[in-house]
Protein: Response regulator
Amino acid sequence: MKIETVCIIDDDPIFVYGTKVLLNYNSCFGSSVIVHEDGKEALENLTAMVKGGEQLPDVIFLDLNMPIMDGWEFLDEFVKLPLENKPRVYIVSSSIDNQDIEKAHTYDVVKDFIVKPLSDSILSDLFETIETEGAA
Structure:
């Protein structure tokens, strides 16, 4: 399974830029990156995509600490969307709090909790896992 579209929900421009660079050098990644600086903007856009019958991103990288609507609030609303094929959500946060990690795993849509920074090896392992799941 090739990952065609990735959505980055993060207000840190350095993280967004670095992630885009990593994605561009990964052979498992297609071509489209959608970026949102807060959960509210992302939720509105993804909801519009659902209503318009558009394909949602294959993967969402979600930060927890953002203005307007944080990652937890986004997840609380995102799981309510009527989706047949839910994107794989990976929380990418600078938090190392075990409570955050445990809370992340209470959401069925969250596949993993990754502590920043995101590296090429982490991204490659993540895409390899997705490919394996897709082939099964």
